Amino acid sequence: MNKQLSAADQKKLLVALKKMGEDFQVGQDKAEEKKWTDIEVPLSLADALARLTKTELSAIRVNLDVKGASALNKKELSALLAQHIIEALPALLLSFDLTRYNILKQITACGGFANLPLEPRQVNYFTERGLLFPGKYKEQNVLVLPVEVLKAFAACDDASCDEAASRNTELIRLTFGLLYYYGTLNIDQLAELAAAHTEKVPSIFDYLNLIKDADHYYKYNIKGDSAGYSHGKASNAENVKKEQEARKELPFYPFTKEQLLLAGEPGFVDRNSAYQAFVDFIDGNYKIKREEADELIQECVFAVQNDRTPNQLFQYLQEFLEIGSLEMTKAFMEHIVQLHNHTRHWALKGHTPNELSPEPSKVLVQAPPGNGKVIDFTAKKKIGRNDPCPCGSGKKFKKCCAN
C-alpha cells in the first residue's frame, strides 16, 4: 500500500476495494441466476441456442473453430452453429475423458435432461460447445441435451468412444501428475514422460489440444507457452527450468504410474508424514479449523517448491498465526525443516532433499537479518560461502541456496 496515504485515506481505499469485490460477486450471482430460467423439455437445438446471448454464441463458434462467422448476426450465427454442433460431435466425443463422456451418457439415459451437481464453470464448458443447456424444469435446476444432439450422441455412442475416453483419462491424469511433481516441463519432456506410462500417445498437436481442453473443464490452472507447460503455482517457471538444467546428471524421480495417476486427480495434495505432523501441530495449538491449517501448509509446500527459504515460510505463517515465544519459534522451525526435507522439489526434478542426501537431511536456514550468517539448521554447522552447496547442484554455496 502507498505509504503516502493517510490512515483515513487507506481506510477509504480498503472500503472501496471491498465494495468493488462485493459488487463483482453480486454481478456474478445475477448472471448465474439468469442461466436457470424456465426451460422446455424436450428442447430443440434452435430453441436452446435462442436462449443464449451473442457473446455466448460466439464462445461456441470459437470452441468449434467455425470460420468466417464473426460478422453474422445472432439469428444467422445460431443457424450456422446448429449445423456445426452436430457435425463436430463425433470428434468432440473422442477428445473427452470418462468424466465428461459419462455425463452425456447419464443425461441421455435420463431422457435428455437431469439434475447434476456440476460447478458453474463445468456447466459453461458444455454450453460453450453447444451440448448442454441449463434451466429450471418443474422447480428443479436441470441440464438439457437438445433433441438433435441427443440423437447424434446415441448414434456415436459405441465402444470406440468408450475406449478413447479411457485412454484420454489416463493420459490427462498422467500429464497433470507429472506437472504436479516436476513443476515445469517442455513439450518433448512432457510427451516422453507421459508416453513411458501409457501404450498409445496421440500426435503432439492432438496431445496438447487434449490437455488444453481438459484444463478448461477441470481448471488445474496450468500455464502453457510455446516451450511447454508449468504447474499453476509455479511463480517462476524459468527459474525452475534453469535449476533442473543445472542438475543434468540428476534423473527425474521415477514415479510409478499409480503415483502419477493419483497426483493427476483434481484437488490432489501430497500429504506426507511431515505435512500431516505440521497440520496436527497447528491444529493442536491454535483455534482455527483443521481445513484452514491444511490450506496454510499447502501454501507452504508450494512455497518450498518455488525455492522460498525456511525463513520466508516462517514469515508467511506469522501473517496468519501469532508466534510469540522462543519455544514456539523453535517448534515452527523444526516443522518447517521437516516439511522442506520431505517435500518433492521441482528444482530437484521431483526428488526430496532427504532422498539426495546420504546423511541425515540438512536444510539451510538464514539467520535473522543483521548478522549476515547462514547456518546449517540441523547440524548447527556454519557453511562457507565458497563451499560446495549441500543441495547437490555443483555450484558454490554463495551462488546457489545462499542467493
Mind sketching the topology for me?
Elements: H1 7-35, H2 45-50, H3 54-63, H4 74-93, H5 98-109, E1 113-114, H6 120-127, E2 133-137, E3 140-144, H7 147-156, H8 159-182, E4 184-186, H9 187-195, H10 204-218, E5 223-224, E6 228-230, H11 237-246, H12 257-263, H13 273-285, H14 290-305, H15 310-318, H16 326-342, H17 353-356, E7 364-366, E8 374-376, E9 381-382
Antiparallel strand pairs: 1-3, 2-3, 4-6, 5-6, 7-8, 8-9
Helix pairs in contact: 3-4, 4-7, 8-9, 8-12, 13-14, 13-16, 14-15, 15-16
Q: Can you give me a brief rundown of this structure?
A:
InterPro entries: SEC_C_motif. The protein is mostly helical and 403 residues long.
**Mean pLDDT value:** 86
Total E-strand runs: 9
Q: What assembly state would you assign to the polypeptide chains in this entry?
A: single chain
Beta-strand portion reads: 5-15%
List the secondary-structure elements in sequence, H or E: HHHHHEHEEHHEHHEEHHHHHHHEEE
Number of domains: 3
Radius of gyration over alpha carbons?
Answer: 26 Å
Question: How is the biggest beta sheet arranged?
Answer: 3 strands, antiparallel
> Percent range for helical residues?
40-55%
Low-confidence stretches: 361-382
Structural class: mainly alpha
Question: What's the helix count?
Answer: 17
Rounded to the nearest angstrom, the distance between the terminal CA atoms is 27 Å
Shape: globular
How do the strands line up in the largest sheet?
1-3-2
